[in-house]
């Protein structure tokens, strides 16, 4: 449970920071989303980092329980799969990602990351462990 709390706290800080950035620096995040797949080195680095983070979560936190901690496991598996896909099929991921990087999606993004950040923040910082 201690590892779950640590990962939840870290995820909360990351998601809430991304949300705040999305609200405050909309133009910067729009440029960032446009540039992400234009640079081959950056694309590879994104995949590499996603594989590392995903693998570490899956290796140390592969818990399929019936409580909130399963969200961490799911995020770990998704990160691992996304990283592998980015490394192996970068052009395919670029094409698929374009549909998620529309102006409308970039307007919704800060709200989604806010909700996810608050959820992990609640479980990581405030929820009483059983």
Question: Can you describe this structure?
Answer:
With 130 residues, the protein is an all-alpha fold. The protein has six helices and no strands. The longest helix has 24 residues. It is globular. It starts with a helix and ends with a helix.
What would the keywords be for this entry?
single chain; 130 residues; mainly alpha; 6 helices
Helix and strand run:
HHHHHH
Task: Please summarize the sheet with the most strands.
Answer: none
Q: What is the terminal-to-terminal distance?
A: 9 Å
Helix content: over 70%
Low-confidence stretches: none
Rough outline: globular
| Radius of gyration, whole Å | 16 Å
Structural class: mainly alpha
Proportion of β residues? under 5%
Average of pLDDT: 91
| Total beta strands | 0
Number of separate helices: 6
Question: How are the SSEs ordered, and which strands pair?
Answer:
Layout: H1 2-24, H2 26-35, H3 40-60, H4 70-88, H5 90-98, H6 103-126
Helix pairs in contact: 1-6, 3-4, 4-5
């Amino acid at each position: 449970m201690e590892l779950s709390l640590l990962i939840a706290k870290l995820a909360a800080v990351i998601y809430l920071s991304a949300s705040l950035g999305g609200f405050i620096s909309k133009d910067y995040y729009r440029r960032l989303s446009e540039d992400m797949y234009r640079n081959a080195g950056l694309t590879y680095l994104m995949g590499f980092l996603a594989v590392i983070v995903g693998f570490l979560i899956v290796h140390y936190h592969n818990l399929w329980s019936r409580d909130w901690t399963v969200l961490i496991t799911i995020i770990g598996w998704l990160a691992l799969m996304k990283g592998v896909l980015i490394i192996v099929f970068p052009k395919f991921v670029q094409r698929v990602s374009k549909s998620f990087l529309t102006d409308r999606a970039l307007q919704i993004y800060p709200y989604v990351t806010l909700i996810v950040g608050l959820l992990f923040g609640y479980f990581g910082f405030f929820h009483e462990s059983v």
